[in-house]
Amino acid sequence: MAGPTTGLAGKAVIVTAAAAGIGRATARAFAAEGSRLVLGDIDGPGLTAVANELRAEGTTVVPVEADVTTPEGAAAVVGAAVRDLGGVDVLVNVVGGSRPGQTTVELDLDGWEAMLRFNLTSTFLMSKAAIPVMEAAGGGAIVNVSSGAGVNGMPANPGYVAAKAGVIGLTKALAIDHGPNGIRVNAIAPGAVLTPLMERNRTPEEIAAFGRTNLVGRVGRAEEQAAAIVWLASDQASFVMGQTLNVNGGPRGGL
């Protein structure tokens, strides 16, 4: 008997941080499934470039330049999906990033709050804006992007670690509260992934060292994270709820 298809063709999908990295790869992966897209990012030129690429391949794309760490930005992205695509079937919360190099003692309050706002509050605000739309339509799927740092911790990055652990907790809370109304909520926890953000934050030597810490022997690719996101959003994962999928190449320190 054939298994379920993804069921994503024609679905209205929001992807945040879509101008580069995991967000861009995720937008391309949903486009390959035949989904219709609303793409959010603060990088207007990068967002326009991705939108133009996908439109040239026949995908319906609505780019929205917005800061989803604010209620107004989150509302603008969800509002565009309702206005131009008729609703929201899938929300993928990719926005996030880290600034390693300071311990809790060294990190000031502004830096701490910035990490929480960027990595956790953005996910909260986008979910808060999208869930009523999804519930009114009978359901949908949310996939949040946490991090291996949120599962296992990492040195000198307390704001990021706490925020990404918070994404995992928020994922569970959303699943418990809104799963009965037809919304499936899950997350991925990427390991080291070669993105423009990593290339800005880390030296080539550090990136190579990250790759040697897992069983696969290399850092991940954004497309690998995108494939996991698409699966969690799809009908193929219809019985997966409130979970965080580690997509990390298999840490050598233990599975």
How many β-strand runs?
7
Largest beta sheet, briefly?
Answer: 7 strands, parallel
How many angstroms does the end-to-end distance come to? 33 Å
Dominant shape: globular
Instruction: Please name the CATH architecture.
Output: 3-Layer(aba) Sandwich
% residues in beta strands: 5-15%
CATH fold description: Rossmann fold
Structural class: alpha/beta
Helix content: 40-55%
CATH class assignment: Alpha Beta
Q: What is the strand arrangement across the widest sheet?
A: 3-2-1-4-5-6-7
Query: How many separate helices?
Result: 9
Structural commentary:
It contains 9 helices and 7 strands; from the N terminus they run βαβαβαβαβααβαααβ. Helix 1 (21-32) packs across helix 9, helix 3 (71-85) packs parallel to helix 4 and helix 4 (109-136) packs parallel to helix 6 (158-178). The two termini are 33 Å apart. Helix content is 47%, strand content 15%. The chain has a single domain (12-189, 222-242), classed as Rossmann fold (3-Layer(aba) Sandwich), CATH 3.40.50.720. It has 255 residues and is an alpha/beta fold. The model has no long low-confidence stretch (mean pLDDT 96). A 7-stranded parallel β-sheet has the order 3-2-1-4-5-6-7, with helices on both faces. Strand 1 (12-16), helix 1 and strand 2 form a beta-alpha-beta unit.
